[in-house]
From TrEMBL:
One of its GO terms (molecular function) is 3-phosphoshikimate 1-carboxyvinyltransferase activity. It comes from Neolewinella maritima. Keywords: Amino-acid biosynthesis, Aromatic amino acid biosynthesis, Transferase. PANTHER family: AROM/DEHYDROQUINATE SYNTHASE (PTHR21090), PENTAFUNCTIONAL AROM POLYPEPTIDE (PTHR21090:SF5). This is 3-phosphoshikimate 1-carboxyvinyltransferase. Pfam families: EPSP_synthase. The keyword Lipoprotein does not apply. Belongs to the EPSP synthase family.
Amino acid sequence: MTSPLEISYPGGPLTGHLRLTGSKSIANRALLIRALTPDGFTIHGLAAADDTVRMQQLLESDDEVLDCGPAGTTYRFLTGYLCRRQGTQLLTGSARMKERPIGILVDALRSLGADITYAENEGYPPLHIGYSALDKSDRVSIAADTSSQYISSLLMLAPTLPNGLKLTLEGEIVSMPYIKMTLSLMGYFGIKHHWEGQTVIVAPQYYQARDFTVEADWSAASYYYSLAALSESAELHIDGLFQDSLQGDAVVKELYEEFGVTTTFTDTGVQLIKPAGTVAPVLFEHNFVDCPDIAQTLMVTCAGLGVQGLYSGLQTLFIKETDRVKAMKAELGKVGVSLYKIPQRMAGKTGILYFAQEGRADYAAGTPTFATYHDHRMAMALAPLAVQHAVRLEDPEVVKKSYPDFYRDLQQLGIGPKTV
Ligand SMILES: O=C(O)C1=C[C@@H](OP(=O)(O)O)[C@@H](O)[C@H](O)C1
Ligand SMILES: C=C(OP(=O)(O)O)C(=O)O
């Protein structure tokens, strides 16, 4: 744990220009695909994010123990990849990773012939993974309601399998834009696929080497949208983001229109404007099933502005870096904002889980100290409140997972961090 950091803003319009970090989701796919491509290729714009660095290191390592730390994509993508690599390796991770389920992916890989055994608890990391031809079958069904990363892991491997793969997605599909991102990137490297209903069909094919540039990270951009929304007025220029994005989290540009933040694409990225005098909405309602990583950002924006929140599609937040709903409930509670599950009888009989949020962040008790729960997004989502009142973040270095320069970039906007 690193010492707490206090961040504050002197006030006035928020202005500035920065170049945003690369997307770890895109980077980790490009790295995995490169490992499956005989000729290799150059990847530009790889971020120094821990999850990306780990992916690079582990793909190159022939150590017997591979430690993914808290990196979900790294763990799930390597689970598939290692099945085709010679030798046996122990794939492990942080204490939290050992609580994040992997059984759905292991069962799917085993049905193709994988040699995987649980080293500790059934259904959870760590895993012993041995080599297998994965030629027992050319089709598999997988529950799509828990994590899309299992599906992306299988899809990236699919063209390299002796018989290709027909992958049927069962139940509600969560994080669908990430599956589309995987298929688009595979397409960039020459892999064709087609859908038959809920089944993705990928024939045996070779990845084609092509140089590649990683887009800036729209999930990281969400924190600047929140900063703009929470400021009295703002004009921010963020380089590296483009209109035609592979990332589902690019939806932030539409979501923040409700808070008066407009986006204009420029030659180098985006310009965000929030005019003075913008009136916040009374209610913000959204289903986050396609964009779970920006849920915390929107919760904090609503808390800062006193906007009532009505959220659904949060079911995957319980198994991320922390139980994010529980963590947000505790931290927003520190500034008097409540987040609670709506009883089923009030939400209707749809089976959809709804959460409601009420209250406006209140700093009467002084500078709040927010815990970050080993979750980069807790720190980054709560930080924008600093434009309203100084806030303290515990274990601030947690942001390194996806955005190591987060505080440096805030400083460029005049939002000053100091260690306390
Ligand atoms: O494939 C990816 O790059 C990701 C998929 C999502 O996870 P789930 O599919 O588990 O929701 C997302 O939350 C994660 O940050 C990155
Ligand atoms: C959920 C996340 O990451 P991962 O699942 O890759 O650990 C995230 O970055 O918000």
